[in-house]
Specification:
Length: about 250
């Protein structure tokens, strides 16, 4: 039979390990659908632009071959231009929506991280004022007061990158100086976030969140003077994560 302390440790690790990103789960099919639609529209745009380029090249060749006026169909010309403009507009419309989805994935992921960190504190201690934990600075300060320096947790670097990118996205698509100073590889030489760079960034860092949270829990458990070893051998726990960390307790 587990003691109260053992149950607390289990709850802490379970909270860190099993918090699925609900937004990712919710939009998974929509994301796939819109990316497929964007790919189709991009091919249509490429086709329309090639038709226009071929028509213009043919007209230019005929025009250069003679000093006389070369007749052409103004209707065909307008149709080709309209096809390009329509395909471009449709492609950009879907691209903006796809970008909005990955933008929200980043913002939601950081928000969920903050929620989980608050929840861990509330589980571990009964005198936590969650209302006072209104930003990252206040969260770090509260953890520090519990002898837990989250900046020393595993995978803090990508978590801090997530924080800074999240802050930038909440204001605009402009890559801020703070983001640039972190030298994030996906945004190198860019002035604006775009779908490709932001999606690559999110795919790279999203799995770091769980590793970071589990490391924070180990630090919390240590600060409480408890042991996490029974959690690692508990046959009833969720086996979704193989935790391997050298902690001297």
């Amino acid at each position: 039979m587990y003691s109260t302390e053992q149950k607390l440790v289990d709850e802490l690790f379970h909270s860190a390990e099993c918090g699925e990103n609900l937004f990712d789960l919710t939009i998974a099919s929509l994301n796939t659908q819109m990316n497929e639609e964007y790919a189709v529209l991009k091919r249509e745009l490429d086709t329309a632009e090639k038709r226009y380029d071929d028509w213009k090249s043919d007209y230019d060749a005929k025009n250069q071959a003679t000093d006389e006026y070369v007749e052409f169909s103004i209707d065909e010309y307008h149709d080709l231009l309209l096809d390009c403009q329509a395909s471009q507009a449709h492609s950009e419309y879907i691209a903006d929506q796809v970008f909005a989805l990955v933008e929200m994935q980043v913002i939601y992921s950081f928000k969920q991280l903050e929620i989980t960190l608050k929840s861990l504190l509330s589980l571990a201690f009964d005198n936590v004022d969650k209302k006072s934990l209104f930003n990252w600075k206040s969260l770090k300060k509260e953890y520090n007061s519990r002898n837990v320096k989250i900046s020393e947790a595993d995978n803090y670097v990508p978590i801090n990158q997530l924080r800074v990118v999240n802050n930038a996205l909440k204001h605009s698509s402009k890559i801020t100086q703070e983001v640039k100073e972190l030298a994030i590889v996906e945004f190198r030489d860019l002035e604006l976030f775009d779908y490709e760079s932001l999606n690559s960034f999110y795919k790279r860092i999203k799995d770091d969140i769980k590793v970071f949270l589990l490391s924070v829990v180990c630090m919390l458990v240590s600060s409480l003077g408890l042991s996490h070893l029974h959690w690692r051998t508990n046959p009833n726990r969720d086996e979704t994560f193989e935790f391997d960390m050298d902690i001297p307790f």
